[in-house]
Amino acid sequence: DRWIKEIDEHAPGVPKILVGNRLHLAYKRQVTTEQAQVYAEKLGVTFFEVSPLCNFNITESFTELARIVLMRHGMERLWRPNKGQLLSLHTC
User: Fold this and answer.
1) Is-contact 60 48, C-beta < 8 A?
2) Origin, by domain of life (predicted)?
3) Does residue 15 surpass a pLDDT of 70?
4) Mean pLDDT rounded to a whole number for the chain
5) CA-CA distance, 8 to 4, in Å (whole number)?
6) How confident is the model over 32-65, as pLDDT tens digits?
7) How many Å apart are CA 92 and CA 82, to the nearest integer?
8) How many Cα atoms within 13 Å fall on the side-chain side of residue 3?
9) Among residues 48, 60, 46, which one has the least CA distance to residue 22?
10) Residue 84: strand, helix, or coil
11) pLDDT surpassing 50 at residue 86
12) Do the beta carbons of residue 51 and residue 23 sit within 8 Å?
């Protein structure tokens, strides 16, 4: 909550996503996936679990954030999602 408050104070209206980092260390997790999803819904943002070690959901999370920025600034014409593209799931 503190970080969200600081973001809203210093950069009001900036697009946000919620990222749970180090999915490869899930056995040490302090927040469940369900808790994070509920929190993201409360904030009105998309939630991603990522693992830089495994390169899991890194591109997808940044792509979603970029999509939100483009859509908010009226650049729909520049964003053409590949309708045939499926989210690929990678395992460590």
Assistant:
1) yes
2) Eukaryota
3) yes
4) 83
5) 6
6) 999 999 999 999 999 999 999 999 999 999 999 9
7) 26
8) 5
9) 48
10) coil
11) no
12) yes
Outline where the chain has alpha helix (H). Answer: 2-10, 33-43, 58-72
Spacing of C-alpha 3 from chain mean position: 15
Q: Say what the pTM is.
A: 0.70
* Residues forming a β-bridge with 56: 51
Rounded Cα gap, residues 22 and 15, in angstroms: 22
Mean pLDDT of the region 70-89:
61
What is the Cα Rg of the chain in Å?
15
Name the residue among 42, 45, 38 with its Cα closest to residue 14.
45
Show the DSSP H helices in 11-50 as ranges. 33-43
Tokens of 13: 């209206």
